Structures are given as C-alpha cells and as structure tokens.
Amino acid sequence: MFKKxxxxxxxIFLSISSFSCKSLRISKEEKSFTSIPYLIEENxxxxxxxxxxxxxxxxxxxxxxxxxxxxLYIANILKGGIRLTxxxxxxxxxxxINLELNDGFYGLTLAGNSQFVKEYCSDxxxxxxxxxxxxxxxxxxxFALKVTEEEYENxxxxxxxxxxxxxxxxxxxxxxxxxVYSLKRxxxxxxxxxxxxxxxxxxxxxxxxxSVESDFVxxxxxxxxxxxxxxxxxxxxxxxxxxxxxxxxxxxxxxPGVTPLFYSTWDNYEFxxxxxxxxxxxxxxxxxx
Length: 289
Prior knowledge:
- The structure is a single chain.
- By secondary structure, the chain is of the alpha+beta class.
- It is 31% helix and 16% strand.
- The chain has helices at residues 2-18, 74-85, 149-163, 173-187, 218-229, 231-239, 269-279, and strands spanning 38-40, 56-65, 94-98, 105-108, 116-119, 139-148, 169-170, 215-216, 259-265.
- Helix 1 crosses helix 4 (173-187), helix 2 packs parallel to helix 4 and helix 5 (218-229) packs across helix 6.
- The model is unreliable at 1-34 (pLDDT under 50).
C-alpha cells in the first residue's frame, strides 16, 4: 500500500517537473546541439592505469537524451525529474554499457520481461524503450573507460550473467529515493558540496559485497557493474563514501576515467562511430563491420 502511494507521489512530482524543463540539449554550456548531427573527439586522452605496462582494453558507456513522441510517456516524466534536480552540465536520462562500439548497447529499462537488453539507436523498433523515441531528435554521447584485460573480462562476465539472471528488474521505486536525495542535494546543500564525489550520501558500509543484487534503475545498475569489476573505481567510491544506490545518470561522466569519445543524434550513431574510429584508429577493432 505504502509503495503504491510513494509511486503515485513520484509520478505527480515528476509530471510537474517534466513540463518545467523545455531544453533538449546535451550540455547546458552549448547554445545548440540538436542542429549538429555529430561531434568527434580527435585527441582522446585517458588517465594511465596503475600499471601502464599491463595490456589494456576499453569498455564503453552510452548516455542518452531521448526525445519522446508522447510527453506523457512514463520515461519522459522521469526524465523531467532528473533534469529538475540535476546539478551537472549534462542533460541525460539513461545509460547503457557495451564491450564494443557497434550499435546495440545493453541497458536496463522498463521494457517488458527481458529488461536488460540491447538498445539500438539505428533500429529503435527492436526495443520497446527505444521505440518510444524519435531517433532524429534524440541524442547520445559515447564514453570509454580504459581497463586491464582482466577487468574487461570481468565486465563481460557480469553482462553475460545479468542478461540471463531472471530476478534482475528495473525497480521504479528507486527513482523516488534518488529524486528525494537529488532535491536535497540541489536545493538544500551548499554549492561546494553538490559536486559528485564531494556530496554527502546516506551511509553505506561497502559498495561491493558477495551478494547478488537484483533491483536497480539504469544508473545504479551500470555503476554496480563498474564497482564490482574495476577495483580502482570501487576504491574511489569507498574513499569518497559514495552510495551507488543514489547515483544519477548525470553523475556517471564524472566517475574517474570515464572519457567522452563522440556525440551524435541517434540516427547518426553508426556514421559517427565509424568516423570516430577513422580519426582514432586505436578503436577500429571495437567497431566490427
């Protein structure tokens, strides 16, 4: 009964907030992004690993600013709430992960029984969540994280495990908890304490344990994967006393080592990815023909 009440309150709050945010830009610093089909980073620089002599690979995160055909669609309402309470320079509301740059990143959404599935910018009808969006107006930024081969394989195993884990679910009520925390962070916290890594979170003993979690929203799930597969990220979260269960999508670009590669509208994703690998040949092996 109380869970249903909380969910109704959340929807009312986010419904109001969704109509108070009209901009569809990825970055608040830019005058206009929607008129640009793609932007490519030409000199990508990553922080060195703890042992630069170790063989390394990359994993990829794709963050979205979806534009929905129906403003009353539930995901659009949640998007409005994120933007109302956001303290970053990014206007993003969903995140997915992949081991390559080919279209088809794994994301967790309210998309039916199989909720952790591939999301295609080039074929939105292949996924229930993506099908609600306009690919010509929706935007994405692809980021990379430099990892050791062992960490890369750990991420692969995590993805493979959860694509088949029947108890995994998008737990919508988590958005209420994050929304309440985000309101406090933006409107009732000193400016110097709002930035990711400096703000105070509800206490957490450790961000990593041996139990298998099953209830997430997209941002907490991707963060959960990273802190359980990449030790230095886990250490950084524990050092800064960050509770991953309160991570917003817009916090993810601020995780140490997460580096932007390229921006595009959804219908230009494949072209932008190909152009990026031509400008940055090191990534060509991650884009299969």
